[in-house]
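Quick start: what a row looks like.
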Amino acid sequence: MTGIAAVARATDSRFARAAEAAALGELVADKLPNIPNRTDPGPLLGRAIAGAIVGAAVGDRLDRDRVRYALAGAAIAVLTAQLSFRLRRTLSDHLPPVAAALAEDVLVVAAATAGASALR
């Protein structure tokens, strides 16, 4: 949801506030112990769908092939889910789990914001 929120905000979408609220909810929920790993099939599919939405929006904004950008967005979302999961696990070896999660959140929000700012 962070990517969707960042793109919605950068493109002045009327859905920006709702997307930002959903992204904030996801960031909070991610800290709860009963939430499944993002690399489990269900959450990973959700991330792929979110990545496809972001990719299609970027493709549309750049007047490029939305389908190709959607496929690229889905692939990038799956890859970054795996990488960020491993990063958080590694950080948790050196930091308290909540601190590792917050460090990961800062990185994700910064990356999404930087990527979306290129659309302005």
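That is the whole record. The chain has a mean pLDDT of 93. Residues 5 and 19 are 5 Å apart (CA to CA).
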